[in-house]
Hints:
This protein is an alpha/beta fold. The chain has two domains: 5-164, NAD(P)-binding Rossmann-like Domain (Rossmann fold); 168-289, Orthogonal Bundle (N-(1-d-carboxylethyl)-l-norvaline Dehydrogenase, domain 2), CATH 1.10.1040.10. It is 50% helix and 11% strand. The protein is built from twelve helices and nine strands. The chain has a six-stranded parallel β-sheet with strand order 3-2-1-4-5-6, sandwiched between helices. A three-stranded mixed β-sheet has the order 7-8-9. The protein is globular, with a radius of gyration of 20 Å. The chain starts with a strand and ends in an 18-residue tail after the last helix.
Amino acid sequence: MSDSLGWIGLGRMGDAMVTRLLKGGHPVMVWNRTRAKAEPLAALGATLAQSKLELAPLDIVFTMVSTTDDLKEILFAEGGLLTGPHKPKVIADSSSISQLGSAEIRERLEAMGVDFLCSPVSGNAKVAKAGKLLVVSSGPKAVYERVDPYLQVMARKVMWVGEGELSRIWKIAHNTMFGVIIQNLCEITVLAQKAGIPRHVFLESINDSVLGSMYTRYKTPVLCNLRFDQVTFTPQLLLKDMDLGMAAAKALGVAMPSAAATRESVARLVGRGQENVDFAVLLLETARDAGLELEAENVELSDGLES
């Protein structure tokens, strides 16, 4: 594991993942559009780059940004990573982007002699900090095997699902399910509360049933205490991913009625200005539709993500 490493994109997820690498003893050069977000990592041993081009001579550069256009910009726009005389050997991208956009980027990179690995993840920033991410990769098997040791440092499990952009389809399917589950979890929680069961009691029972999961457990404190200011994922980002899911379903001829209904519910959240809060704010909207105004229960609960 002697490759030189770089990282571009230090949002909630990127910051948590880089921290795992640094604490695992791997030096990383980092760049972020807002430099202030990168500065705390210097105390952990990160080197702060002044420009994206400083990362170009490195062996492997990881990227984690919001959209396909964002990824294209950091790679190919003026001053981008690949606009100078040096090129990294591998770009390993963990962004949630479309299959078509990813394929276009791969084609451009390969024409430059740069390998491309798609490595989207399952989990939010707190999951990443706890080292409990799932990473699902696609691309050339040899490239995956080169990057895998570093991915292992950031995750509880790393998988390779095949060549090309297959992990993009995995991530689109994953986040579409992500939306459908939170929609259903909010609906049944409101149903139980309107019948008289406190939220924390109902959600504890779900978590301990065959339906419980890491997802239902780590959303339980938020749903009970209504702390939607503790953002893990916004309605706007979820809407982007639901749209990717619906586009993929249309292209492949797959009917997804529950996902379609969820997409409209999330779109309504965004339309009402619920953009910069946690997506679990859907609970409040679902309750209001049922004639309930919820109050925080202010209970001490574990989210199951202790390191």
